[in-house]
Amino acid sequence: MHVPDGFFNAPTSVATGAVAAVGVGVALRKARAELDDRTAPMAGLVAAFIFAGQMINFPVGAGTSGHLLGGALAAVLVGPWTGALCISVVLLVQALFMADGGLTALGTNITLMALVGGFVGYGVFRLVLLVLPRKVTSVPVAAAVGALVSVPAAATAFTLLFALGGTADVATGKVLAAMVGWHVVIGIGEAIVTGLVVSAVLTSRPDLVRGARGLASNRAPLITKETSA
Fold it and tell me: Is-contact 149 120, C-beta < 8 A?
């Protein structure tokens, strides 16, 4: 999903850069309501986990690569605005130090993965929760569905941008088939990973899953210590 430098023309890159800047700016303000003494450390762990997951890349075609996105996972664990910031920081570090993506395409990558992927995933997550029983066990299922939808949604948005300002000599139909086809498969894997991770965190610390608030107890598990007489 990482877009390299020069893959889109200048107007498209500037436009997505502006969208990313506005999105990150709003997220910085909105995240204040999501972050507290529990979610702030969790945000760092989420960013580290997604960074590691995105290091596993494989080519999709026309100079692009496919990998886990993590937008839905981050949104469910720490909230959609904080999640968008987590993904944005990961993408910035990758562009600066890992040569994954490019600086001129950073706005495009943030728009696709942090904004489209994260907010589509979280929106689907909330919609699925409305139709499932209001139980903690519904959260991993809803998160998995959100992740499943978010990945091809981001791939579709990429194809729309390519149709508007792509510079590669590849037919839009071929790009659509390659991107959406591969990312449906990636979405299935991301759904499994997202469901398992959310389930694992819920089992040990349900208070750390922001998407489960109102369904799970926000109390941390009690730790008892035996004392000798």
Answer: yes
Domain hosting 17: range is 10-210
Listed residue (150, 131, 151, 126) closest to 210, CA to CA: 126
Q: Is residue 21 part of a domain?
A: yes
Cα–Cα distance list, 85 to 31, 49, 92, 189 (Å): 8, 14, 10, 23
Round to whole Å and give the CA distance between 182 and 7.
19
pLDDT of residue 131: 94
Report in angstroms the alpha-carbon separations of 106 from 2, 13, 168: 9, 9, 18
CA distance 16 to 108: 5
Give the residues of the chain that fall short of pLDDT 70.
1, 57-66, 216-229
Q: Is 219 part of any domain?
A: no
